[in-house]
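How a chain folds remains the central question behind the approach discussed here. In the encoding step, the backbone of a single protein was reduced to a row of integers, each denoting a local shape. We regard such an encoding as a compact summary of how the chain folds. The sequence in question and its structure tokens are set out directly beneath this paragraph:

___
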Amino acid sequence: MMLEFHNIAFIPLILGVVEVFKGVGLPKRFLPLLSLSLGILAGIFYVYPDDLRSGVIVGIVYGLSASGLYSGTKNSLEKNNRQ
């Protein structure tokens, strides 16, 4: 299983799609689950369409990375606003 550099573009793409769903009113508690689901779908259907296990593992990495990118940025901005 080898991650290619261009597939990392899925992380901001997932983040953008999650933001769209957030904008249309999806409750915030479901956003990490949506991020994880989108990552798994990308991993299975695009990155590793011939290897389900690798697709799921890579998808989990993408989904959790997008979720962490969102929460890390949000926490940093909130911390700067408090100072």
Summary: The chain has three helices and no strands. The helical segments are 10-23, 31-47, 52-82.
